[in-house]
Amino acid sequence: MLTLALVSLAFADSTDAAPAPAPAPAPATFSEAHPPAVQKYDGVRHGFRAGYVYVNQAETLGLRDPSLFAIGYEAEFKVIGDKGLDFVIVPNVMVLGLNQGTFIPTSNALIGLSFNDTFKVGVGGNVTPNFSGSSWFHMVAAAEYAPSVGKLQLPIALSYIPDVDGNWRVGATVGVNWPKR
């Protein structure tokens, strides 16, 4: 009798079993399949910068050499966007020319975008009181790659400051950022 019960269970109608769940739909786009890591706002980032600035036509500005050492301080204010795209406001102050025994203060204020908190681009204004030929005020454009190491960022930045009189500047700086807490 036990054998008959086992045989009848083995040949039971498969329609009595519960239906299998439907497979999950495939993501429609690459972004849906691979969403960016969730970013958390960590307040203002700030830190020091050091680097090099090349000044075109430096001799017309009273400089002995077109190469200027640059050192300064920068802050970054970030507004979290969506899908790894954020809005940033970046002010900084620097001193140029210490390698030539010259003190040239300069300041920038940029607005721009940050992509996945690593690559940043921005444009804004530059003020250089005793250095800029015919005008104190210029446009500045910059790009930065800032890999993270724990809570620190190690930015590598390039900047360009055009000038209608031909005294344009291009710079490269490296530095360190940390969150303000």
Detailed description of the structure:
The chain has helices at 2-10, 30-33; strands spanning 45-55, 67-82, 85-96, 104-115, 119-127, 137-145, 148-149, 152-153, 156-161, 169-179. It is elongated, with a radius of gyration of 29 Å. A hairpin with a 7-residue loop joins strand 9 (156-161) and strand 10 (169-179). It is built from two helices and ten strands. The chain has a single domain (44-179), classed as Porin (Beta Barrel). With 181 residues, the chain is mainly beta. The chain has an eight-stranded antiparallel beta barrel.
CATH class: Mainly Beta
Largest sheet: 8 strands, antiparallel, barrel
* Poorly predicted sequence stretches spanning 5 or more consecutive residues: 1-7
- Biggest sheet, spatial arrangement of strands: 1-2-3-4-5-6-9-10
Shape: elongated
Structural domain count? 1
SSE class: mainly beta
Give me the Rg, rounded.
Answer: 29 Å
Helix content: under 10%
The overall strand count is 10
**CA distance, first residue to last residue:** 77 Å
Order of helices and strands: HHEEEEEEEEEE
DSSP strand content:
over 45%
The CATH topology assignment is: Porin
CATH 2nd-level architecture: Beta Barrel
Number of helices: 2
| Overall mean confidence score, pLDDT | 84
